[in-house]
């Protein structure tokens, strides 16, 4: 008798915390807080809040990594706010790479649209999972784990990614180490790189110290 009552109570309790409105379009004029964006007033919501055209055009791949990520997160696509979903477009020039990075707030699903991309991730036991993906192939990257994508063909590549959060977050390992003012001595001690290597990478990625 206890178990049915327990499940009934759990159901009633969970339903009391269920979504009490259809959507929560991001109010981009308000501050972004720990819980994300606050909701626009329903009277100000329009259909354009639920439409995003920014993934139609390729991103700028004339850069250091020869790749571009065009996000459709809550800051760009207010309609996904609070829904636990978002998207991004990944464009790769020849030799393009999305460096080792993590999304602290979301898992990712990648689908290759054009070309071939070698992609992979490293789990918390430091085991590596990677494979070359071709057109139509899909790969998942669990939340918070380091992962990467590299164009391995002699022509441009294109992929789209979906995320289990409206704001998945991003930390790129190379920039976390070499793109800030973390003292070189500490980087050398923690990475076993020598001073010349650290200074060279800081010069490339904009770091100081």
UniProtKB/TrEMBL annotation:
Q: Where does the record place it?
A: Secreted, Extracellular space, Apoplast
Which Cys-Cys disulfides exist here?
24-39
**Keywords assigned by UniProt, alphabetized:** Apoplast, Disulfide bond, Glycoprotein, Manganese, Metal-binding, Secreted, Signal
| GO cellular component annotations of the record | apoplast; extracellular matrix
Manganese as UniProt keyword: yes
Q: Which SUPFAM superfamilies match?
A: RmlC-like cupins
Q: Which domain of life is it from?
A: Eukaryota
Do you know which Gene3D superfamilies this protein is assigned to? Answer: Jelly Rolls
- Amino-acid positions noted as binding Mn(2+) in the UniProt annotation, renumbered to this chain: 101, 103, 108, 147
Give every Cupin type-1 domain span: 53-199
Binding annotation for oxalate: 103, 108
Molecular function in Gene Ontology = manganese ion binding
Query: Which N-terminal stretch is annotated as signal sequence?
Result: 1-18
Family under the similarity heading: Belongs to the germin family.
Instruction: Please identify the protein, giving its name as recorded.
Output: Germin-like protein
Q: What species is given as this protein's source?
A: Rubroshorea leprosula
